[in-house]
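User: Hey, my collaborator sent me this sequence without any context and asked if I could get a structure. I don't really work with proteins. Can you help?
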Amino acid sequence: MDEGRVVLIDHPAIQHKLTLMRERTTSTATFRALTREISMLLAYEATRDLPLVSHTVETPVATMEARMLEGKKLVFVGILRAGQGILDGFLEVFPSARVGHIGLSRNEETLEPAEYYYKVPPNLSIRDVIVVDPMLATGGSACAALDRLSAEKPRSLKLACLLAAPDGIRKVHASHPGVPIFTAAVDERLDDNGYIVPGLGDAGDRMFGTK
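Assistant: No problem. I've predicted the 3D structure and written it out in structure-token form, which is a compact way to encode the shape of the chain:
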């Protein structure tokens, strides 16, 4: 796996939908729908290297050797709560994938994450794991999640997000250099409160209408 790799997914459809999400006047329902739509497109790119196996299939015309995914070994782990919106899109593409959740709250003064929930499928050593969260801002939550999952030695580990800030990318690469980051955009910077600028606001609040 390439060290320090960032995969910027700049497909026109993703960029168009992301711009709509950035608009402060976008409704909660539309924001939620756009999150799911972009996540489906992210899922395709983040899983481009999944292993395939040969499978004999009989078409209406002939018998052939075709390719299928290598078993049900894919796991998506959402960082609560906003990661749930990304999970929904990924599961549209891979409905048989297993799902894990990591609950992390952010101390608004120190900006450091505190874990309050952790539940993932067993036997991660034979599974390909993708951590999903809308925003990679300071990188604190992402690194905390990657720390926990790395300890279980998954077959592969990736991170997928809608937006990333340079600070978060540097932090992830410093502590987990072998984990590739898949994102739709890398924004300019963080503000004094640790929010991505220009960003799209608080993804969880906008997704669930809590602010």
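In plain terms: The CA atoms of residues 99 and 129 lie 9 Å apart. You can pass these tokens on to your collaborator as they are.
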